[in-house]
Amino acid sequence: MNADIASTGQVHGRGRVRHGAVLAVTSLALATVVSAMASLNVALPGIARETHASQTELSWIIDAYSLVFASLLLLAATLGDRFGRRKALLGGLGVFAAVSAAATFSSDPVVLIALRALLGVAAAFVMPATLSTITTTFPAAQRARAVSIWAAVAGASAVLGLLASGAVLEVWSWRSVFWLNVVLAVVAAVGTYLFVPESAEPEKQPVDAIGAALTVVGLGVLVYSVIQAPEHGWGSTRTLGGIVVGVVILAVFVLWELKHPHPLLNPRLFRNLPFAAGTVSITLQFFAFFGFIFVVMQYLQLVRGDSALVAAVSVLPMSAAMIPSARLSPWLAARHGARRPWTMGLIAVAAGLLVLAELGADSSYWLVLAGLVPLGAGMGLAMTPATAAITDALPPALQNVGSAVNDLSRELGGALGIAVLGSALNAGYRGSLDVEGLPEPVAEAARSSLAAANVVGTETANPSLIEQARDAFSSGLHLALVTGAGAAVLAAVAITLLLRHTRRAPAVPLAATIEKDTHPAPTH
Prior knowledge:
Layout: H1 5-8, E1 10-12, H2 19-39, H3 44-51, H4 55-83, H5 85-103, H6 109-137, H7 140-169, H8 175-195, E2 198-200, H9 209-227, H10 229-232, H11 237-259, H12 273-303, H13 308-314, H14 316-336, H15 339-356, H16 365-392, H17 399-432, H18 440-448, H19 450-459, H20 463-498, H21 508-518
Antiparallel strand pairs: 1-2
């Protein structure tokens, strides 16, 4: 991961490389694993009804994928660079297809959680190998255009995944989402086998297995404690102790990486303030974004009663606002400096989430639209300077590291956002639902999730329970989205403080220092 794959990677082809086919295949592989982060959100009501999953288990079904994906991303990228990126793509896509097929036969939420975690392992090998393959196989004159297409696919895949899943759910059950994964992964694997040449790093650096283990354990303990907090209690010893243990393990990871000669991620990179600002911003932006997708898809289907496809189409105005604002952001940055549109975007994200936090059981779609437009526009304004800050802060020899950090920030932010906002939703729902006087089995089912409350309310001919559960869910939605808005405001404050003395990023001497610390000159 610490080498410039564009200049040092070795390509072992069996003939002329067909660059158009390579780009198409790697883009499809990327879309397959990125869309899986969001696509299953549309199917949550169906999963809850059929598997009787609780709200906590629904959080785990979504977040197991994102958490493992983020935890293993740096290690998997290092292994792909060392042993072969084509092998990483074929192996990752093969496992992704097989596990997705297995998930279609499951009806146990615990089994689904385990299978989603395995999908995260596969995705961690696929995503970095797609970009590394492009930068290694494409000539310099074509590389920038190919990378821009890769970035566009990465950005659009989440929304496209929602739409595709919503469409197949119109004619089949939630299992169709996993069958869609199978089809995409198989086509991408066949294309990889036919068109993608093998490439690997010529210098075989030691793999930082201990650093990888510390990352997985630290993030796992931290996210587990947050997701389980509504059941154990936020102030319980189990919750607080788990959060402390997770933070301590991650602190040990930082200390280990500082001493390791070939770290997965060199903490010294964060001495570059624009780089640090970009990383913080991407993490908190996607914390709010993926947490929002997790809770709002349930609201649209379970509270408003929209179908899966209508729910997916309902969030399209967010993308419609995001695209022009993303194009406008570089122009604003050139005229006023990156910090101004960057912070304006984050404030717009917070404003949009605060509007959406006012949604209730009887709210019209106009209120949804009023929140989606500033949310999308703000994401577009803030994402461009944040990504540029990460890549521009590093010298050419560390661009692969910058790409990995950008990917890690997004996946880690998404995993934590789903965990925290999902936990806040669950806590608000359980705290607002009054089940006094109901038989204990009915009360326990109603407390577990809104989908279960709808089922038992229908079965027991108790429409007042359904209405009360929808109101309770709206209370949980309010708490979750206010939490997301707080994360966006925190990001805006962090950007303002980190870049208060910087109009343009980054500082070249500091970048050179980082290159020296992270990638020392070879000795002969």
